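Allow me, if you will, to draw on your knowledge of protein folds for a short while. I have a record of one protein: its chain in single-letter code and its fold written as discrete structure tokens. I should value your view on which stretches of the chain appear to form regular backbone elements. Thank you for your consideration; the sequence and its tokens are set out here:
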Amino acid sequence: MDYKKYIFKPEDKKKLEQFKTDDTGKFKKKEAVLNEFKKDLEHLSELQDMLYAHDKYGVLIILQAMDAAGKDGVIKHVMSGMNPQGCQVKSFKAPSTEELDHDYLWRCMKALPERGNIGIFNRSYYEEVLITRVHPKILSYQKLPQIKSDLSNANQILKTRYDDINSFEKYLDNNGILVLKFFLHVSKNEQKRRFLERINDTTKNWKFTPNDLSERQYWNDYMHAYQEILEHTSTNHAPWHIIPADKKWYMRALVCSVLKSKLESLHLHYPVVSSEQKKEILKAKTVLMKEA
């Protein structure tokens, strides 16, 4: 599956609306995608096993999207064939009192995956340049010494955060943490359809909150904010992937394909045992074979 066309390259100066939300690549039917998806999941399980045994790299998957884009579904379906002991999922809500007493990256740093593991951020530190762009008043609650009472320097603070994030992700890359960033690009019409589905289906009512509808009113503001995020933080070491999200089956398969390809690029392998270790293994085998 060709995922390279979904990588956001700032030098191309493309706008978010130029990326189709209903794209399905070369696939016309859901069944064809599911067959490839199944094969990728099986291979992904093998790669995860090697990632753990290799113990040199960690993988951080960042999922950002508008409400109802399908973040939870990606986590559920793409990670379904993996060993849960090697995966950890962290969702970031509004910061707590304790978290507000620290820098904005602190709570995310605590949740970084260990070497050999895959960590998934359902939303992330990018909320600090997303929601704060749409609702700059939030910055006034973050105890920042440089923030002005009239918020006139809010834009400057956000630009500084872009630099912080790029430096942070470069630091992670330098230390063997592969950062994979996905923006699940859903259309406004498809979000409406999914909201109505949650409202009409009593088993899905719990997924819908009044805040979902209120934030929908800021759709254009969020798109502008995401455009800025993509332009400022899609780098060679941690590029953004713009994943079309109107068709869930293609979205999930595409994310899986990217993850599989990136893990393959690490050239993972099982540890090679020394000659001394091999001798000990053969001795152990002899002892076990002699047991009644």
